[in-house]
Structures are given as structure tokens and as C-alpha cells.
Design a protein that fits this description.
The complex is a heterotrimer of chains A (225), B (224) and C (234).
Chain A: H1 2-25, H2 38-66, H3 69-101, H4 109-129, H5 134-165, H6 181-224
Helix pairs in contact in A: 1-6, 2-3, 2-5, 2-6, 3-4, 3-6, 4-5
Chain B: H1 3-21, H2 23-40, H3 48-69, H4 72-75, H5 82-89, H6 94-122, H7 131-156, H8 162-173, H9 175-189, H10 197-221
Chain C: E1 9-19, E2 22-32, E3 37-41, H1 48-55, E4 63-69, E5 82-85, H2 97-108, H3 113-123, H4 139-151, E6 157-161, H5 169-184, E7 188-193, E8 205-210, E9 213-217, H6 224-233
Helix pairs in contact in C: 2-3
The chains are: A mainly alpha (225), B mainly alpha (224), C alpha/beta (234).
């Protein structure tokens, strides 16, 4: 119990430190001003979300092959956490875009692809909600999860290729586009902090799922006995 | 019996059943027609703009139609539990998927080809000179829709709210197919009649990837 | 119809089947000898259907093993041709009787399938209706086609899940006669039933399931008749 609290506190401190760094350590960007600082949260959340979805993918495969419940719990936890981070990315996008370029949404390649990614995992969670029997739910959502993840590179590829044919003014530079050394350090630190947060949330969500299962087991035994 | 001969026998059954009643084909064609006509109210069809929107809207109509047409695929095997009879009779459960996806591709392609002249007339895009490459694009796109759609139909058939779940699962997954097919079709219908090898290649890759995924994981969708 | 020497026995070893948290079957261990005709009795939800579907390899046990023992030489003991007649007819309403049987016959790889189908259609007395759609058939007629489907590949093991449900007495008698013939020619048969009937009279052994566990087995104690009877009140 104490161990969990300590880890939790450390992660929170890490996140606070990253926030501090993005506000006070990173230099102000030339053209966009202070609002650009949201980039650190935006991009780092995106990466953490992608990693979570990858964890979901791996968990799905392990479940299909081994049928151990814990992989199902990891899968759903990773999907939910991934969705949370991806939502942060999709919200910080417009918050960043509006003051700088005067528009709320831009159908640029990365944002659009991320939107589809987001919808795929919403579909994953929705599917789970529509399947009652636990083993069936675990297996069918795992297979869909696998299909969804292998679709991701195809989605990103198709949208990027499509955007090169029909270019829009590029307004949201990629993470590698002209990051000055200090900025780069703050960026990587933010990525680290977000990943630590992701792991924390995932493990807590996993505990919740495990406890729920244990509770149901006890309830069942009480009813039977 | 081998995988391919099982699949061939089952494909025969799927085709015979459909061509006897033709209910899937007729309802799908009518649905696509309705969607296309309704789309035409949303913009000025005489302008040059319409030439740009039209292929994308056509493929969107195909996607919507497919997400409805694919519903009965596994749902009707729940009648009389014929799915269990099939599972007992075939040597490899993938034969069931192979047959159904072949049938679905064929049905989709048929409805699309029936819609092509109608679309051509309604939007004033001559398709005559490019019919052959268009058929190729329609085939690869329909194959992609069917491969994903047949697998997802097996999933949604077991879920609640299945009529809505299938489109929710299918449409985001098929984004690459929509983009690639629409682009390839647009390029062909354009006065320059360009054949976009890149998009056609992309469609082929999508088809291969998901066919492989279905082969690897399909049997788990039929488990009890 | 079948070769008696090739009928295997069935061994269930500590079979568990869980659906989520519910046990449909709990540590079921049974040894069924080759050629035995066993009646499986129990209330709804006692696990009879689940046990049969596991035997037919439609469902997988959560733990435990199933094996076919001493069957056709050269056949994997995990695989044996089984015929399964379920509660649902498992045939296509939108195909004719002949088309249905030809379909499954071809999938199973039955040699000289057209001859075999004609033979079966005659046996079930539906040769004259072979080109009629199954949706025009009565429940009894459809069940006959279902039995024919199960027998296409001359299985040595026959599994039946409450096969007489919804059948009129003439059809039940036909079913009892058919099963008797199969039993006498050496088939291993497992039938799930609700209680005594013309069908249950064919069984030489009765096993009672309750809440997924074996609670009575005439092979280890008690008479088959007693076990069958007790289920009427249960």
C-alpha cells in the first residue's frame, strides 16, 4: 500500500516537474508565442497514447493465444488510458490552433489520423459494452483490437499520402520540425513524464478490474453456498 | 476435404441462395441509388466542383451500403444454428470465411457495377473509356470492404445493438479503403483518365494484410 | 450402415466448462465404452447440452480432456467422425432437402455423395419431397433431414440433444427405430433426454447431471430405469 502511494507521488512529481519545465525552462517560441508551450503536453500525450494502444495490442494477442484473464484486464485498461491521452491530444490541438491561426480544427494528416485512431478505440470499448459474457467479450474484443491496431499504420499512411496530393497549409509542425536544443530536452522530459503517468493510470485501472473480478467471484460463491 | 474445395462448395451455396431470392442485391442497389440521389441535393451538381466530390460520395455510398449488406452474413447462420452444422462439416473453419468473403465481394462488385452507369449519367462523368481499370479498382476496394466486413460481421452478430455496432466497427477501419478507392476512381474519371498505381497498390496491400489477419484469427470468432 | 469394429469409446477426464464465472460443467469424468448407448438426463441448465457440444468439438472445455478411445485405426484420437443432432435442426430453410444433404455431404467429403444422399432420403421417407424447400416442411420432417445430415458420413459416434422435442408420436417412433438400428450395428450413442420415453428405452446406461456435475451413473450404482425416472420429478 505504501509502495503504491510512493510510486504515485513520484509520478505526480514528475508530471509537475514537466509542467514547470514547459512553462519556465523552455524558451518562448518565435512566431507563436506562449501558446506554443501547449505543444509539450500535446505531443507527449500523443506519444503516451500510442504506447498505451501498443500495450493493448500486445495484451490482445497474448489473450487470444493464452486466454489468461489478466491479459484481458491489461487490454481494456490500456485502451481506456490510451483513449484518455488521445483525447487530450485532440483537445489541445484546437486550443493551440485557435489563437495562432484563427481556426479551431485543421484536417492535417496527423490530427485526422489520430481522430480515426480515437474512433477505433471508442468502437473497441463500445463493443465490450455490448458483449455480456466475459470470455466472449474478452476474445471478440481482443480480435477487434488486433484488427484495429494493424489498421493504424494503414490509416496514417493513407491519410498522409492523401494529404501530399491535396496539401493544406501546414500549420502544425511535426515534433521534429525545428526544435531548438532546450526545447528538445523539455519535449523528451514531457514524453517521459506522460509515459510514467500512463503506466500509473494503467496499473491502477488494472487493479480496479482485478478487484471487480474478485468481488464478483466472492459474490457468486456466497450465492451458491 | 481441402480448404479450397470446402470454400468452393460453400461459395456455391451462398451464390445459389442469393440468386434464388436476389433480396440482398436488390435492396443494396436501391439503397445506394437513394444515397447517391440524396447526396446530389447537397451540392451543385453542374459545377466543376461536383466532379471532385462525386467519386468520394460514390464510395461513401458503397461503404454505407456494405455496412448494411453485411449484417445478415453471420446473422442468418444463427437461424437453426446452421453455423454449428458448417463447423462440424468443414475441415478448416477458414473455409467458411473464405466462402463468405468471396460471396460478399462478388455481391458488392455487382451492385457497384450496376450503379456505375447510373452515377455516370447523374453526375455527367463519362466512364466509358476507363471501364476496365474502374472494374479493377472496384474489385480491390470491394475485396477490402468484404474482408474486414465479413470478419466484423461475425463479431457484431454476437453483440447487442448489432445493427449499429457493425457500422461503428467497420467504418473507421475502412478509412484507408475509402481514401484509396475514391482517389483512384477520381483519377480515372478525370478527363486525364490517369491510372494511379500508388493507390491501387495501396488497396492491394490493405487486402493482403486483412486477409492474413482473418486467416490467423478468424477461427477464434466462431468459438463457443 | 457403419462398421461396428470401428466405433470408439469416449473418455471424459475432469472436464470443466466455465462461462465467465458460471460453471456449466464441473469435473465431469466419464468413461463410455464402444458401442454403448447412454442416456444423459437432467433438468434444463444441468450441463447436458454443453457436454454434448464439447463432445462434438463445437465447444472447448475450460480444462480437462476429451478423447475417443479405440476407434478407427489411423485416426487421431482427438478426431472421430461424430454425428450431431441438436435441438435446432441445423439445416437451411432456404434450400431443398436434397440441396441441404448434398451441401453437407460434399463438405464432409462423403464418397459418391449423390448416391448416399438419395439412399438417406429414401430411408427417411422424404425422397419424393427432395426438391421441396425445407421451410415448407413440418418440424418432424425437418428433424428427419437433420438426422440424415448427421448420418451422411456414417459416423461411429452419434450425439443427440433432446432429439424428440416438438416431434409427433409417429416421428418419435421413427426416430426410436432408427436409433435402435444404429445401436444394434455398434454405434456409440449419447442422447440427452428429459425423462422416460421410447427413446430412453434404447439406452443401456443412464447418467444424471445436476448443476454441471455427475450425480448418478447406472454404471456405478442404481439402475438406468431408476435414474431416468427420478429425473421426472426433478
Amino acid at each position: 500500500m505504501a509502495k503504491r502511494a510512493i510510486w504515485g507521488a513520484l509520478v505526480v512529481l514528475l508530471v509537475i516537474a514537466a509542467a514547470y519545465a514547459s512553462f519556465f525552462v523552455a524558451p518562448t517560441e518565435n512566431s507563436m508565442g506562449e501558446i506554443q508551450r501547449i505543444f509539450y503536453l500535446h505531443a507527449a500525450s500523443g506519444w503516451a497514447g500510442m504506447t498505451a494502444f501498443f500495450v493493448c495490442f500486445v495484451a490482445n494477442i497474448f489473450y487470444v493465444l493464452g486466454r489468461k484473464q489478466k491479459w484481458d484486464w491489461i487490454g481494456v485498461s490500456a485502451a481506456e488510458v490510451g483513449l484518455a491521452f488521445t483525447t487530450v491530444l485532440l483537445i489541445t490541438g484546437p486550443i493551440w490552433a485557435h489563437p495562432v491561426w484563427g481556426i479551431w480544427w485543421t484536417w492535417d494528416a496527423r490530427l485526422t489520423s489520430t481522430f480515426i485512431l480515437w474512433m477505433l478505440y471508442i468502437a473497441y470499448l463500445l463493443l465490450r459494452g455490448m458483449l455480456e459474457e466475459p470470455d466472449r467479450r474478452a476474445l471478440l474484443s481482443a480480435v477487434f483490437g488486433i484488427f484495429a491496431f494493424i489498421d493504424v499504420p494503414l490509416v496514417f499512411g493513407a491519410i498522409r499520402w492523401w494529404r501530399t496530393q491535396h496539401p493544406q497549409p501546414v500549420i502544425m509542425g511535426g515534433p521534429g520540425s525545428g526544435l531548438e536544443p532546450t526545447m528538445r530536452k523539455v519535449f523528451f522530459f514531457s514524453v517521459l513524464a506522460m509515459h510514467a503517468l500512463m503506466v500509473l493510470l494503467l496499473s491502477e485501472r488494472y487493479r480496479l478490474e482485478k478487484t471487480r473480478d474478485e468481488f464478483l467471484e466472492v459474490q457468486r460463491e456466497a450465492e451458491a453456498g | 476435404m481441402s480448404l479450397l474445395s470446402n470454400a468452393a462448395v460453400l461459395l456455391g451455396k451462398e451464390l445459389r441462395t442469393e440468386f434464388r431470392s436476389r433480396e440482398l442485391l436488390t435492396t443494396t442497389v436501391v439503397f445506394i441509388l437513394m444515397v447517391v440521389v440524396l447526396f446530389s441535393f447537397t451540392f451543385d451538381t453542374s459545377s466543376a466542383e461536383s466532379k471532385r466530390f462525386a467519386p468520394g460520395l460514390l464510395w461513401l455510398a458503397f461503404l454505407f451500403a456494405a455496412s448494411l449488406m453485411l449484417q445478415p452474413c453471420f446473422l442468418r447462420e444463427q437461424n437453426n444454428d446452421t453455423l454449428s452444422a458448417l463447423r462440424l462439416s468443414v475441415s478448416d473453419p477458414f473455409a467458411i470465411f473464405l466462402a463468405k468473403l468471396a460471396a460478399n465481394t462478388l455481391f458488392l462488385l455487382l451492385t457497384e457495377l450496376l450503379m456505375l452507369p447510373v452515377f455516370s449519367i447523374l453526375f455527367n462523368v463519362p466512364a466509358g473509356p476507363v471501364v476496365a481499370p474502374l472494374i479493377l479498382v472496384f474489385f480491390l476496394g470491394s475485396l477490402g470492404i468484404s474482408v474486414a466486413g465479413t470478419a466484423l460481421s461475425a463479431i457484431s452478430a454476437q453483440a447487442r445493438m448489432r445493427e449499429l455496432m457493425l457500422p461503428i466497427l467497420l467504418l473507421p477501419l475502412l478509412t484507408p479503403v475509402l481514401i484509396a478507392s475514391a482517389e483512384a476512381t477520381a483519377a480515372l474519371l478525370d478527363p486525364a483518365h490517369a491510372f494511379r498505381k500508388d493507390w491501387v497498390g495501396f488497396l492491394a496491400i490493405f487486402d493482403v494484410v486483412f486477409l492474413t489477419a482473418m486467416w490467423l484469427f478468424g477461427e477464434y470468432l466462431l468459438e463457443e | 450402415m457403419i462398421e461396428p469394429a470401428s466405433a470408439p469409446g469416449i473418455r471424459f477426464d475432469k472436464i470443466d466448462k466455465r462461462y465467465g464465472g458460471l460453471y456449466a460443467l464441473r469435473r465431469v469424468s466419464l468413461e463410455i465404452a464402444k458401442g454403448e448407448c447412454v442416456a444423459l438426463v437432467g433438468r434444463n441448465g444441468s450441463g447436458k447440452t454443453t457436454l454434448l457440444r464439447i463432445t462434438a468439438r463445437l465447444a472447448r472445455p475450460t480444462s480437462g480432456t476429451l478423447a475417443f478411445v479405440g476407434g478407427i485405426p489411423g485416426h487421431d484420437s482427438q478426431l472421430a467422425p461424430v454425428g450431431f443432432v441438436a435441438h435446432a435442426t441445423m439445416v437451411y430453410d432456404e434450400l431443398t432437402a436434397e440441396e441441404n444433404l448434398l451441401l453437407f455431404g460434399r463438405l464432409l467429403g462423403v464418397p459418391e455423395v449423390s448416391t448416399r444422399v438419395a439412399e438417406l432420403l429414401r430411408e427417411i421417407g422424404l425422397y419424393d419431397r427432395r426438391t421441396s424447400m425445407l421451410r415448407t416442411f413440418s418440424r418432424g420432417m425437418r428433424q428427419k433431414v437433420a438426422v440424415a445430415r448427421a448420418l451422411l458420413h456414417r459416423p461411429a459416434v452419434l450425439l443427440l440433444d433432446e432429439p424428440a422435442t416438438g416431434l409427433d408420436s409417429v416421428s418419435v417412433q421413427w426416430l426410436a427405430r432408427t436409433l435402435k438400428q444404429l445401436r444394434d450395428s455398434g454405434c456409440t450413442i449419447l442422447i440427452s433426454l428429459h425423462g422416460e420415453s421410447e427413446i430412453s428405452a434404447l439406452a443401456t446406461r443412464a447418467v444424471r447431471l445436476d448443476s454441471g456435475a455427475v450425480v448418478a451413473d447406472s454404471a456405478t450404482g442404481g439402475s438406468a430405469a431408476a435414474i431416468l425416472n427420478s429425473s421426472v420429478s426433478g
